[in-house]
Structure prediction request, 485 residues.
Amino acid sequence: MAIIFEKSVAGRRGVLPPRKDVPVDEALSPDLARRIELDLCELSELDVVRHFTELSRKNYGVDTNFYPLGSCTMKYNPKFAEKVAAHEGFSDLHPLLPQLRRGGMLTQGALAVLYELEQQLGEICGMDAFTLQPLAGAHGELTGMMLIAAYHRDKGNDKAEVLIPDEAHGTNPSSAAIAGYSVRAIPTDRETGMLNFAALQQAINDKTAAIMMTNPNTLGIFNTQIKQIADLAHQHDALLYYDGANLNAIMGKFRPGDADFDVVHVNLHKTFATPHGGGGPGAGPVGVKQRLIDYLPISRVVKRSDGTYFLDYNYPKSIGYIAPFYGNFGVCLRAYAYILRHGREGLIDISENAVLNANYIKESLREYYDIACDKICKHECVLSASIQNENGVHALDIAKALIDKGIHPPTVYFPLIVKEAMMIEPTETESKETLDRFIEVMKEIAKISETNPESLHRAPVTTPVSRLDEAMAARKLDCCFHQNE
Ligand SMILES: *Cc1c(COP(=O)(O)O)cnc(C)c1O
Prediction:
């Protein structure tokens, strides 16, 4: 497809505004005036509309088809929440409106949403307080690690290291490192799919600042030794961090706070169905236990006894601001609407169906693909293309073949500890018919990998461009690609 500049025709116009009839402001410095012509493409309004509409139809999203991306919870984003977020009482608010007195009446509703969402997340996770400021899961992790560092510093603890299982999402070690800690990986037992407890016992010492865990982990396996892990951490005055990206598996079943986790983050754009956008905006609220509340970012929303709200900045031990204003307010608002709409029973149903769907896919494909850890999984299952490998077919080939069938590929080559990994997270929002179609397509690809493996190396053939050099595509945006006929 031609880019819009290639469609430009000299002299063609969409809307032609009348010539300027006001003098240029004298105060405007002449150096600021444009000296060269603005290089815009020249098109009619209809040309522009058709160009962008056509482009949008080439886009793939959860509103167009199945999106089983493991570890990302690409669930349907209900339009109801969009409608709530677009309400002008919220969308027209300026973040600098006064919070007190007369003008404050304009912001009380927004403050109530923030306050109540903090309470809801506290209840869902079993934590004492939340901040909604972090702008993504990874940002929540960094905030959490900064809180842990502030806690140890304040107590005069000499801490240096964070322990993280080797299946962890890459953001975990990155966040710990940016917060100033060195990182040690703890091996995962392939039989149980859980971290090796003996290795953890060996690695932990009085320099350990924290253990960072996802539960269920990125293999989709729930760690049942969590109580022993928490006790071990606390014996060494290390804190336990819960990466809540997989909360969609366990809402209403397990609360990290009850298992003695000290800090958690949740990804509103995963569990609470807010859009992921093009890599954002998201939100990664962080919850803490009592002993970490003093370090939370400012400002904090406080409810007075008369039912009104205000922003409190008086936290001298706070780690300060970690995002402008109140975080991604529009994202928080959508999550708030989603939680209220589903209620306690609804959130439990969500988790149960997410787990059921993942196990349904795993069991339906067991005769066709290797299963990374053959146990009941939670909300995602990890398959391996190791059988297909014998015919020279890789997880990448299967991913690309799925594109030709109109299905977004799952996450591939992650978790790193599984050879030829394909990590599939169907979510609760997909129907049995959609799952069945995906299963049929996966079976068909498994058969092709026996009868005609070569053909899979050429996929995708139905897209405008075929396989990209992914590193090049990110670094050199205008490089040439092989075009499909
Ligand atoms: C998605 C994810 C993260 C990072 O969250 P972002 O919101 O993408 O920054 C961290 N850990 C796990 C397990 C995840 O799945």
Q: What stands out?
A: The radius of gyration is 26 Å. The longest helix spans residues 329-364. Residues 71-72, 136-138, 169, 171, 214, 218, 243, 245-246, 267, 282, 284 surround pyridoxal-5'-phosphate (CB under 6 Å). The chain has two domains: 80-341, 345-475.
